[in-house]
Amino acid sequence: MNVKTGIIYSSVDGQTLKICNKLRDELLQSNPNVELFSIDNFNENITNYDRLIIGASIRYGVHNKKIIDFINTNQKQLDSIKTAFFSVNLVARKSEKNTPTTNPYVIKFFKTIDWTPTIVEVFAGKLDYKKYPFFDRIMIQFIMWITKGPTNTSSEIEYTNWDKVTAFGIQLSNL
Ligand SMILES: Cc1cc2nc3c(=O)[nH]c(=O)nc-3n(C[C@H](O)[C@H](O)[C@H](O)COP(=O)(O)O)c2cc1C
Description:
binds flavin mononucleotide
């Protein structure tokens, strides 16, 4: 069966995109028809896809507004196919906040949106101080200080659990 899969991402520093690329590689093992789009470039008809995966990172407590608008505008079409959503954030580096039912951003997101994807996941992102402009660096340093994370601005730590990403990819292949 030729299943068509679309992956749509919103990524500022590239970690969500990196996760999407890994998911694409995973999906390609069972089906050749996988397309990856930034939310800025997705103009396709949703119902042309059998499966649609949406991944977005958190910045200052929220997912990209374009992702939220996209879901709200297309909820009916999304409900007619298999869908998945995942969030990428740094709070998920903590084991007690790294599932869809324990991650505060995922919980809040689904309280404010009228959509229930087939599967939901959350991944820890990457901390890379040297990529951040001055204001963001200070803010992230402050957030890290409050949440007992690294505050040394030379820190570059990828918290993403790639085994968890692979497991999610396998789950997506079986959708
Ligand atoms: C300006 C800025 C704000 C952020 N705000 C939050 C936040 O409020 N909560 C959190 O858990 N992570 C926060 N993060 C961490 C990002 O979600 C994390 O770095 C993620 O890997 C970014 O993914 P992306 O590169 O795909 O955008 C923030 C990162 C930046 C640079």
